[in-house]
## 1
Amino acid sequence: MRSPCGVVALLTDFGLEDVYVAVMKAVILRINPKATIIDITHNIPCFDIEKGALALWGSFKYFPAGTVFVCVVDPSVGSERRGIALATKNYYFVGPDNGLMYLAAHEDSVEKVVVLENEEYFLRPVSYTFHGRDIFSPVAAWITKGVPLEDFGSSIAPESLIKPSVKFGVEKVDNTVFLKVLYIDKFGNVALSTRFRELTKLLEINYGDLIAVSTDKKLEKAVVTRTFADVSPGELTLYENSFGLAELGVFKGNASERLSVKRGDKVFLRREVAK
Amino acid sequence: MRSPCGVVALLTDFGLEDVYVAVMKAVILRINPKATIIDITHNIPCFDIEKGALALWGSFKYFPAGTVFVCVVDPSVGSERRGIALATKNYYFVGPDNGLMYLAAHEDSVEKVVVLENEEYFLRPVSYTFHGRDIFSPVAAWITKGVPLEDFGSSIAPESLIKPSVKFGVEKVDNTVFLKVLYIDKFGNVALSTRFRELTKLLEINYGDLIAVSTDKKLEKAVVTRTFADVSPGELTLYENSFGLAELGVFKGNASERLSVKRGDKVFLRREVAK
Amino acid sequence: MRSPCGVVALLTDFGLEDVYVAVMKAVILRINPKATIIDITHNIPCFDIEKGALALWGSFKYFPAGTVFVCVVDPSVGSERRGIALATKNYYFVGPDNGLMYLAAHEDSVEKVVVLENEEYFLRPVSYTFHGRDIFSPVAAWITKGVPLEDFGSSIAPESLIKPSVKFGVEKVDNTVFLKVLYIDKFGNVALSTRFRELTKLLEINYGDLIAVSTDKKLEKAVVTRTFADVSPGELTLYENSFGLAELGVFKGNASERLSVKRGDKVFLRREVAK
């Protein structure tokens, strides 16, 4: 377990039109005026725990050791779902126990989990609809001030944490591999549900090989490359994205439009060139 | 009057596509490199003073005492409208005198108002179109450095401040209550033009009661609850939102779509269940 | 050449939906926890180097001396294009050598340019697709820590820098002036491809004069004013915008809609009133 470093990173589905995010920051600064607050993103689609979990998983490991992550994609706020704080090997996570923080926390090895019960550290009266303001932000700020996790409530077993429905994974039938679209970024790059290295082993492919890519609506060919810039503008490629995942991209173009896919859609890959 | 704490909070209608907001921050840091700058929101619709006034009112009270708010929704920049700085019991506000800062400042008790006249504290030459950069941001930064309000210009009476056209309020005719939609958030929750506590008294309703909700296009029923999570997904509820207002929401759904309402629309509420 | 001041300003086309921007900030804070990070904008359209160059040019000069700008609009990441760091009279710039940083750096006088070669200062392994994270952000953070430019790689001649395709400029034929739409802001104000002062000389116009404005689809009249607030709501005006450019605006309205123009479109101006 690391000492808190004073950085608080926020991830929510609150958007930047309303004042919810600003209010969370205000509450944090009121408790710890020296906190450094960084936005991961607030544009997670409403209630989309899976997308939030992936965004947190893709980004947390670049933050300084001792960062406290406040994560709020919380469709069941005000219900019986638990509010929790976790310490992992290098970080702290505060938010609802609904799978949102699981992938990241699990990857960094969960060391301690407590249920947030001690109202002494909450903003009172606690509302029924905005625990990001009344519980998660103040608890995160108190962690940066050195309050130990056990002061917030009773410990629970890491095994009892809710898991998200995100499905990494890949299936192989004969010489065809079945994947899902994990997410699509602003550039239209299509991240797939497995690590690039696992996929290249499974398909027995190397840089320069050609693969067939089929989706519900399209049949295309892609070259296996180190990066989309290794081909001509407009060509489709398969490469390792910056988070280690297999990704389909079009150099100076948009792969999700080319393939007519959206998040969650199925993609089939098959090696074209015998070796 | 509180001492400035070094936090500067920004609220504008400038959006995040253009560089206007960044330029304001740059100007502030140039005068006070130690300032902590927090965005409230920059996505107020262009020229929408009423929405800006509500956003500021909903958020200001969570900030540390001594925060300086720079507020720029300023359709008449460059005209005769006054630029002002206000000190309230706990905060400072800098911006145009057009109603934008009135609700928040008034709630915190206005203690002093000055007209911004002293060009010594402006970025010169002052442009005709961007007082956020040339007047309001530098004045806010100088306040954080300890410059007293009287140095910026002559005092004016708080009573002379322009009021915004925001209309909180509710009317009751027979057993029906007439309200307006004050704002709609990213989740489609519909905030109404009165406090929840006032509404429950007026309608003589309690948690669990059923009310009829009518809009121009829809007639629905809603349950009075502590939070939208108290009902089943898809049900409409009336509850106290996190700012104390009466709000209509759909658990894991979108109330503004369900009711076909937009900001400013009329909503009628009537108690359904006799007690 | 100035000493770095600890401010790092970011400009990218990454958007705020994905976690790319947050990851860059995390990498910077890991190297320099005391850095002050400011967003210029992340909403540059994908791959739009010209728009990025203009946004940087419009904003850089307001930042504190010693600010380090990290700029990533980088369609050719992973290809042979060079990654560079520049020192100008007052600032530092880090990013791809593709024209993005040229206008700003050139205006502030380039003093030194190095190619980023020394992997000791990179995040390793360096990915092929995200140099913003692996090269540009860490180099910027190391600059704020006092590492001299020569430590990052070999010097190159400022004359070898790639120039952007942005075309300021204006042509006059008989008594008509030909311009282009340089950019359109959130308010629909239409910035033109020349400085206001140059245009008024060329057209021999003064405040109060009337000019004819023609675009492909519209023929309108505009008054030359100090600001759009000098006319009645709904009127079209030509004025000096806050960056010194000639701009067409409608008081409390939207000039780009009125004129049916988009970025890059041609605009013809002619003086109407003889003097």
Note: The first helix of chain B runs from residue 20 to 31.
## 2
Amino acid sequence: MIMKIAYTILADTLKDKLINKGFEKSDALECARLFAQATLDGVNSHGVNRFVLFMSNIDKGIIDIQSKPLKIKSFNALEQWDGQLGSGPNNASFAMTRAMTLADQYGISCVALRNTNHWMRGGNYGLLAAEAGYMSICWSNTMPNMPAWGGNMPRIGNNPLIFSMPGNPHPILLDMSMSLFSYGKMESYQRQDKKLPYPGGFNKAGEMTDDPQSIIESMLPISIGYWKGSGLSIMLDLFAAILSEGRSTGEVGQDDEESGLSQVFICLSPDKFLSKGKMHDIVNEILSYTKKSSTIDPDAEVRYPSERSFRIRAKQLEEGIEVHDQVWQEILALG
Amino acid sequence: MIMKIAYTILADTLKDKLINKGFEKSDALECARLFAQATLDGVNSHGVNRFVLFMSNIDKGIIDIQSKPLKIKSFNALEQWDGQLGSGPNNASFAMTRAMTLADQYGISCVALRNTNHWMRGGNYGLLAAEAGYMSICWSNTMPNMPAWGGNMPRIGNNPLIFSMPGNPHPILLDMSMSLFSYGKMESYQRQDKKLPYPGGFNKAGEMTDDPQSIIESMLPISIGYWKGSGLSIMLDLFAAILSEGRSTGEVGQDDEESGLSQVFICLSPDKFLSKGKMHDIVNEILSYTKKSSTIDPDAEVRYPSERSFRIRAKQLEEGIEVHDQVWQEILALG
């Protein structure tokens, strides 16, 4: 059953649980904010639904909440940090904040982070930058969870890639992984006994299929644009592993648990060139042109990235955030 | 009929034609090199096959070969240049070279370029950086040539996106546009009276189809990953138009000819952190892991980005470059 929870109650509850777990207060506040914001924007899969697993990964020693990122190398606008297997959301928030400081100084910056843990919703770090007036590009590698194009064994990561920028009334955010459908999305179709809207992977016989069950069993989802997303996933892994001198997708896959990831945070400071007003004018020109299109389905509309999630945010801020009651009970039952 | 031409003859011939057209010698050399290299790597569509059109766009005044890029604004590692409607390949080569100089100084850099012309093969600028030891990310906007997801009118560009990095024995390059199939590719299937290997767009009735003819007529190719590539195309256009304060895809589409484009060149200098040897080790670990996979088609292999084009390069360096004799005759007939 779905229940509705006010944002402040959600964020406060998560914060208290994190403090009970041993987080420093400021870390708990930021980590709870990131989990709550993902849920507020409708990304429950990387918000509230993942919180209990996140906490159990602390108990298992996969996440070391005492660890802080450590600067390893730096050259002006380019820095390399070690996440020391700390909390993924906190490390990523730290890295993007550091990239913002460097972008102030240099106009553009890059912070590469190794040995970190799952950052949950990557879009959160794009929003962090965009809300402060920056443009950002960031990505993470993952464990191997897709075949490279043509292959029939998991070899590449779905490596989420984020682009963000300021906008008015809200930032513009693209948060996309390299797989056409996430496992979470496929499971959701499967639970409803539905086919995917488009073929989303291969079955064990190597045939492309829209049956989520077959793809979950074969572990062969397809990448966006077939060979193109496969290539992009490989490039993102190469960049992340090299710039951070951290682990590659293949190396991450040698462990049972997904940990020790490599991430890249690029930040740009457009306010060195344009006023906020000029920037918003350009954004609005592009988005209104894009939306001024008739549609194949007359009841549909053309949407730009994050348009839907900010609508969900507005609705949930007013009416409360939709959470499965079982998920909520499990969170309340945490120590 | 296909003929074979040695690289040096191809590059020299193009250079002579450019000099005859009024190019300065150094500009002619670089422009000819870029057209010839695209062709050498098998990208004839943005190499030799496009040369006559390029020359006629000079005659039409769309490309002003006397123009040089002009620096408009700069803030340390971030610069904004005006291409002054000069030669697109020369402008892009200049911008990436400038980004390389800035990356030397700052570790990462960004050169945004407005009012430029079609850069032909975007991968050329990725190779320029990678061969000199840099990692790069660059992209261009284009005229509106695809619908945004859900729409049935061209509203977004296929906005080619390039990632490149050094490798051994050759650089690693991803050069991908946001459309699943280019018009050139669809026309090639159409000429052979073949269907596309996957649905590549919508027909006029709004149905997804693998019939190239229907997509060419409707002008509704699909983007990679459907809604995902559509979103990425929009973000690339936003970044390019804002950072360069140049024209957006929609604004470019107001003219009959595709000109006055906006481009972004991001360059990173990994040698501030890693030796070339260490970098090559990481590249080779990732690529060999990726390729070590069985395949759905037992006669196929898993390939990494640019693997195929460097094979074509090696073959054509040895055996000569494949060029349609009609294309070659038209080039020879130029003034």
Note: The domain at 66-179+223-273 of chain B is CATH 3.30.1370.60 (Ribosomal Protein S8; Chain: A, domain 1).
## 3
Amino acid sequence: MTETNPPSPAQDRPPARPAVVLLSGGLDSATTLAIARHEGFACHALSFDYGQRHRVELEAARRVGAHQGVAAHHWVKIDLRAFGQSALTADIPVPKDRAQAEMGRDIPVTYVPARNTIFLAYALALAEVQGASDIYLGVNAVDYSGYPDCRPQYIEAFGRMANLATRAGVEGRALKIHTPLISLSKTAIIERGLELGVDYGLTHSCYDPIPDAGRPLGARPCTRCDACLLRQQAFAALGQRDPLLQ
Amino acid sequence: MTETNPPSPAQDRPPARPAVVLLSGGLDSATTLAIARHEGFACHALSFDYGQRHRVELEAARRVGAHQGVAAHHWVKIDLRAFGQSALTADIPVPKDRAQAEMGRDIPVTYVPARNTIFLAYALALAEVQGASDIYLGVNAVDYSGYPDCRPQYIEAFGRMANLATRAGVEGRALKIHTPLISLSKTAIIERGLELGVDYGLTHSCYDPIPDAGRPLGARPCTRCDACLLRQQAFAALGQRDPLLQ
């Protein structure tokens, strides 16, 4: 089933509990936000400006958050460029036209050291301040097994640590890291997002976007990096066309 | 035994392996740095500008690092003020003249949510980039049991998570979080630091320093906050006078 309208607000629920949702403006985090909302949370989106080469990602995060009606959107500027070593933050060429079998084999050059640990650490701080016991993260271990910090055993270990790190743990409130996409294929992720009314035309996935002043985000996808290829294949498998390519 | 001179460099060792040492400029981190050096590491100091009310802390970190001859001193600016809720980053009065029994009872107002998790996450990123398998952190669970993220079980859980988070873990290099002070009293910490040549006159501990243009750091300790009281008691127990009070 595919619903293209956002779900209407529930009238018969108690006031929503807060959750922190990490929102990059990509396809996965946009879907994760929709799932967190669907599960009844008042969502505090948390986005990072970490010296991305592509500011388009930040604009996409802003639009996705606004479209989905987040309770608040928190922005944190962090400097991973000081640590170098990644195609997403430094000037290393992005691989193009790779077959899917090549993508998950090694840790990709687009890997940012300890990125999810840094992002989740800030999410933990925000959760504590907002009195939230739930953090949502759109990691996926299926299409991108090359990232060590996207694996279920990493997320479980972070959750155990988080429950020892903060007041919540000391006071007996269990803190939960939700990763609703972790075992879904890209196709299943998009299918779920379309059901929940995600507008994928607002999202951004490309590792190497081409400037295009005629587009709302000021750029169009390269269509050839790993992220573009996975996205195209997933929309094709659903018999849909990616709204970014229309 | 008390040595007040820094130890001379070892002549008969292999080239030192790198370690990341979190350095706040306080008494504990200055001692931890000296221990890491004594254990043979080339130390990459990592210091944070996280919207401290007291810039004196950053200057102390710089002086301690320079005095102890770190291999490199890395600085990261992070914005915890966005998360509010702590006397160290917001405008909440610092408690004064408390008896030691009062100090460890509750989570103190000087607690910064998830601070050590955020700091260790950056240390993990730096360790990965530098090829370091060792991270030193000067947490202490004896005098300040009120901070949840200073407890041994938290550090152990962070270490388990860290070994799943990064290339090091995937490639079978074990990453270790060293907390050499965790079970030492403040007195034992200072005793060890004096043996290793730490100059405590360069360090800064006070939560509420008083501006004083005549001092090298531009301020003097209040002598009444928890940090000042613990420090005074520890120097007194050793029959020493705190060089900051001379």
Note: Residues 34 and 196 of chain A are 6 Å apart (CA to CA).
## 4
Amino acid sequence: MTDLLSPDQLEDALRTIGVERYHNLHPFHKMLHGGQCNKGQVQAWALNRYYYQCGIPRKDCALMANMEQKEMRLEWRQRYFDHDGLGEDEGGIERWLKLTDALGLDRDYVMSTEGILPATRHAVEAYIHFVRDKPLLDGIASSLTELFAPAIHKERISGMLVNYDFVDDSMLGYFRERLNQAPRDVEFALSYVRRHAVTVPQQRAVLNALYFKTDVLWAQLDALYLAYVEPDMIPPGAYIPAG
Amino acid sequence: MTDLLSPDQLEDALRTIGVERYHNLHPFHKMLHGGQCNKGQVQAWALNRYYYQCGIPRKDCALMANMEQKEMRLEWRQRYFDHDGLGEDEGGIERWLKLTDALGLDRDYVMSTEGILPATRHAVEAYIHFVRDKPLLDGIASSLTELFAPAIHKERISGMLVNYDFVDDSMLGYFRERLNQAPRDVEFALSYVRRHAVTVPQQRAVLNALYFKTDVLWAQLDALYLAYVEPDMIPPGAYIPAG
């Protein structure tokens, strides 16, 4: 981009990134919700994604550390609570562990994260470092994959329930919660980006932040595909499904 | 230090740093609680320290971003809540603004932080960067000035009430709260440091972290002294007390 966009044009450009690059387009996602994964592949996905779930509250804390205004931190911290929990809410990490439990993965093994793929670790760490080190605007913009998340969560819930006899409704609490949380979260972030990306370099940075984030998500599914679909090259130390 | 210390010896060494270098030893602190400050000097202190208060929750978020274990974040976040507030608790930043209000400082001016001394800004930013960039152990150890804080808060409350007719009890809520919060906080941090600083380099890092933090506090009072006591060299742009 070389010309300054209006806020609506910027939002359109951001939404286009989702249409073109969000990980719902990835072959592994299509297999997962379409019922073409075997149980070991679903386990590998849940095990690896646990590390992503653990990284999100750290990422949100890193972002809050960059917020000089208390009001912004108070706005943003609900995301942190969504994952680590607060009061009655056990939080998303705990809900994710209910899924890995129900898939038959040992909880200590999951929490140790020792069986995850190296590329999962790198992608999640890259996300935390991006948010920590870049300007606040870029960090906030990188959260905007939430624009595209509700559709994928719905797809996961219905697809996984219909297609896998080892998945039942009680395992999918995480996704159901996210259906409510993501739209609420994205409202603040989108409005912030629309108001604060007012120069060409800022708009470019905002678009790049969302490209970066779609890459973070995509790379995790790429790694799963290579290791557990084809050519089935599981790296040393990574989880080996039973059978 | 060259020999490995026992946990008790390490704690003694940490406490010695407080005895030798905590900012209760600084001439400005002695003036402040001893009643030798004029109102402008008390205002300048409260104005500058507001920026430190604002930095603390950012520092705690930066530290939490470095905590891979949810349980540690849940333990640490009470410190964050102490400053930004949660539910009924308005938080320490708001309590500090009650003090600056009562001292006759304009709240918008205080919150803009535009009148603070450059050295205040540098010290606070240095603290946030230290915690963000150093190992978690160093970041936790840097909080251990809380070992020495209750004594100074008590001194401030009694000294300021006795010595200044422009200070009353309602202005000192921040310090009264800290009397309860600091001992609770320090227990976790001290126990963590005792358990995790188990090599000579780690113990050296922990001691250096506390030296660093005492310097962060000392430098802020040095800057106040130079600008507002003697030689009364207020830097360009910094707050100029009335009269």
Note: Chain B has one domain: 7-228.
